Amino acid sequence: MMPDLIRNLGDLLHQALESRTPIAPLTDTHPELTIDDAYGIQLRMIEQRLQAGESVVGKKIGVTSKAVQQMLGVFQPDFGHLLSAMVFNEGEPVLVDRLIAPRAEAEIAFILHSDLVGPGITADDVLRATDFVLPCFEIVDSRIKDWKIKIQDTVADNASCGVFVLGGQARRPHELDLALAGMVLEKNGELVSTSAGASVQGSPANAVAWLANTLGRYGIPLKAGEVILSGSQSPLVPVVAGDSLVCSVGGLGSCSVRFK
After folding, report:
1. CA distance 252 to 52
2. Is CATH 3.90.850.10 the classification given to domain 3-258?
3. CA–CA distance, 167 with 165 (Å, rounded to integer)
4. CA–CA dist 168, 166 (Å, integer)
5. What is the pLDDT along the chain (260 residues), one digit of tens a residue?
6. Where are the alpha helices (DSSP H) in 20-122?
7. 20 contact partners, CB below 8 Å, separation of at least 6
8. What does each C-alpha distance from 151 to 129, 138, 143 come to in angstroms?
9. Contact indicator for 23, 192 with CB cutoff of 8 Å
10. CA-to-CA distance for 8 and 29, rounded, in angstroms?
11. CB of 93 within 8 A of CB of 225?
12. SS3 for 113?
């Protein structure tokens, strides 16, 4: 795909983000779109946000669990950039009118104390480079109308990033078995799902290793101090104003989020 077209599509997605007006799937209008093209579009979208004064605070992995893959019809992971305007504190309401079609997912966040630069990163490397882990919510959103996405669409749209909330009790990753740690998700006081870390590529640490190695092919490191969202352990949960969610993780406590 020509560089000018990549820039134009990145600008189009940024305009959709700013106006909260979704657009048709890029794969409908440009069926020739490759995943590498899509990452180029994503980087252009991120460039626009950085020029507006935001900063990169981390990275995210998307579409890691079977439940999310089946729900979206997308069957391989992707990645996106976390920006400063996406950060919400626990207890601070998420305003749904700043999003288009929000859906919540519960996961584990890794906070790094040293860089991870792929290729060749293993799960053990991830654990050694991690300062602590926390339960969190990512509120994903799509600038593609009606969530009608293929892998190229969500990649171009910064892996459908919306906002995120960190919570719970910070723990060193070696203090618990991330693959076996159970997670319970409730919405408005009712049980939505139960899962374990193994639902995310066998362990959240495996997912972060995949991310470091994939980003390494694009010359992008995971940096010390960054927040890395390791991928949803729950189904995507549509949310509206008035909803509240809580996820509880064995050994890590809980994270809550409410919508206004």
Report:
1. 35
2. yes
3. 7
4. 7
5. 799 999 999 999 999 999 999 999 999 999 999 989 999 999 999 999 999 999 999 999 976 656 555 655 655 678 999 999 999 999 999 999 999 999 999 999 999 999 999 999 999 999 999 999 999 999 999 999 999 988 899 999 999 999 999 998 899 999 999 999 999 999 999 999 999 999 888 899 999 999 999 888 888 899 999 999 999 898 899 999 999 999 999 999 999 999 99
6. 26-29, 35-51, 66-72
7. 97, 98, 99, 100
8. 29, 19, 14
9. no
10. 13
11. no
12. coil
List the one residue out of 3, 14, 62, 6 whose CA is nearest residue 30.
6
d(CA 54, CA 51): 7
Cβ-Cβ contacts under 8 Å for 171 (sequence gap 6 or more): 132, 133, 134, 251, 252
Residue recorded with tokens 């626009």: 48
Determine contact, residues 110/126, Cβ cutoff 8 Å: yes
Residue 96, sorted as left (phi over 0), alpha (psi -120 to 50) or beta, turns out to be alpha
Query: Tokens at residue 123, please?
Result: 């799960």
Question: Tokens at residue 80, please?
Answer: 């996106």
- As a whole number of angstroms, the distance between CA 183 and CA 197 comes to 8
Sign of CA dihedral 76, 31, 22, 81: positive
- Tell me 144's DSSP state: B
Q: Where are the domains of the chain?
A: 3-258
* This model's pTM is above 0.90: yes
